[in-house]
Amino acid sequence: MAFGLAAPDYWSDDLTADPLNVLDPEICIINGQGFFVRGLIEIPVTDHDDTFAWNVWVSLSKDNFFRAVELWDRPGRETEPPYFGWLSNRRQP
User: Fold this and answer.
1) Dist. CA 62–CA 29, nearest whole Å
2) SS3 assignment, position 24
3) CB burial class (10 A; 0-12, 13-18, 19+) of residue 37?
């Protein structure tokens, strides 16, 4: 059980032509000013053995974004203090 979107709400396909814009499976940069990482929220489901996995995009400050990218593959990165961020998934109409 999972749900996720390929890009944060602020992304549009016309952004791909500009090199300041990056959309990878786990990170996104928009106009060199918006910084996003993809995370996972696991929600237990009552009376079920599995959890619901919600893939979410979260905005980060520039400093926290580059710190997270720097530590991305390093063992022990989960001990890093939490970063503040806003959920940035697509809003439903």
Assistant:
1) 10
2) coil
3) buried
Q: How many CB atoms lie within 10 A of CB 89?
A: 17
- Do 55 and 6 meet the contact criterion of CB atoms below 8 Å apart? no
Among residues of the chain, what percentage have pLDDT more than 70? Answer: 97
Distances from the Cα of 73 to the Cα of 39, 41, 69, 76, 88, angstroms: 14, 19, 8, 9, 23
- Residues 20, 33: Cα–Cα separation, whole Å: 9
pTM above 0.90, yes or no: no
Tell me whether residue 68 is exposed, middle or buried, using C-beta atoms within 10 angstroms of its C-beta: 0 to 12, 13 to 18, 19 or more.
Answer: buried
DSSP at 8: -
Q: Phi first, then psi: what are they for 74, rounded to 5°?
A: -85, 135
pLDDT digits (tens, 9 = 90+) for 32-53: 999 999 999 999 999 988 899 9
